[in-house]
Amino acid sequence: MIVVSNTSPIINLACVGQLDLLRQLYGQLIIPQAVFTEIAIAGAGEPGAKEVQGFDWITPRSVTQGSLTKVLRLELDAGEAEAIACALEINADLLLLDERRARETAQRLGLKFIGILGVLTEAKRRQLIPRIRPVLDNLRHQAGFWVTDALYQRVLAVAGE
Q: What structural domains does the chain harbor?
C-alpha cells in the first residue's frame, strides 16, 4: 500500500506517543520534502522531528510536479500542496490529512484520504489500540488537536465506546 502523509497526522500522533500506529497500519509512509521540512527543520525539537529523520519506514520524497504544486499553493500551505501533488504523482492508495480545505481539494482530485480520527478508528478495529477515547483525549489536551464535541461523540459511537 502506498501512503502519503501531510504534516499534522505525524506531529499529532507523535505528540501523544502513537506515531507507530502509522507503521503498524501502513508499513511505509512517504512524506514530500515540504512536510519533512515543516516537521524536521522548522519543527526541530518538537514531536515528530527526530522520528521523521530516524525512522526507516518514513521516506521523504521530492515532488516533481512543480506546476501542480504552485497551483495548489494558491489555496493550501506547502505541506498540504506537496502531499496532494505527491499522492497524485506516485498514484498513492491513501493520503493522510486532516485540514478541511486540503481534504476538499483531495476529494476534487479523486484522491482517497483519511484523517487522524479515521486512523484511530482503523487502529481500534485492528485491535492495535484497546480504546480510542484515551488517545483522542490526549490529542485534544496534549497536542491541541481540535475536534468538535459532536464529532468526538460520533467517533466514539462508531468505535463502540
A: 3-117 (3.40.50.1010)
